[in-house]
Specification:
This protein has one domain. Helices cover 65% and strands 0% of the residues. The protein contains six helices and no strands. α2 packs parallel to α4 and α2 runs parallel beside α6. It is globular, with a radius of gyration of 17 Å.
């Protein structure tokens, strides 16, 4: 992505930290949460790699089609799992946006960062993710405490429930990735 190096590194740090937290969420005892966390970890680390400032590292020409292939596969998986969960429709849009950005950046001069995408598609994705960020932010504010199934109020009783299964942290993770996606799309 083009832009200042300091904002690029902040975006890398945000996305990598989000991806790392999503890896921790994969320890959940709930299979659906593990799958969702895996999808979000892939998105977080992929976004971190794509956000590395061009001054620090210019990916080889084969990297952009590889990103497109990985996120294309993630989009197919999200489409398949969207049959049972509407949240995976968001993963489908996110993976599709990553494919779009990878192809746009791969088609830019010298295969550098900051490709020039289709303005209408970029605008539509910006509107979607800006709306997603606002909606997720509103949902994050009044999250009530949820008692664990084992009867413990701390969320640590009755299994591996803990801070990795807290819904407000998962929402904050999704919010930060949405904000990062908006920032990445703005540089298109």
């Amino acid at each position: 992505m083009h832009g200042s190096a300091s904002s690029g590194w902040l975006l890398v740090a945000l996305c990598a930290a989000t991806g790392a937290y999503c890896l921790l969420r994969m320890r959940s005892s709930v299979e659906a949460q593990r799958r969702t966390a895996a999808d979000e970890a892939l998105m977080g680390f992929g976004m971190a790699l794509m956000a590395v400032p061009a001054a620090a590292f210019t990916p080889p020409p084969w990297a952009w089609p590889a990103y497109a292939a990985v996120f294309g596969a993630a989009a197919v998986r999200a489409l398949w799992t969207a049959r049972t969960s509407t949240h995976h429709l968001h993963h489908l849009v996110g993976a599709g946006a990553m494919v779009y950005m990878a192809l746009a950046m791969g088609g830019s001069p010298a295969h550098g960062h900051g490709g020039s995408g289709v303005p209408l598609l970029t605008g539509a994705l910006l509107l979607y993710f800006a709306g997603y960020v606002l909606l997720t932010g509103v949902r994050l504010v009044p999250v009530p405490a949820v008692a664990a199934s084992g009867g413990s109020e701390t969320g640590t009783g009755g299994g591996s429930d803990g801070w990795g299964d807290r819904p407000e942290l998962a929402r904050a993770c999704r919010l930060s990735m949405g904000i990062a996606m908006v920032a990445m799309l703005l540089t298109m």
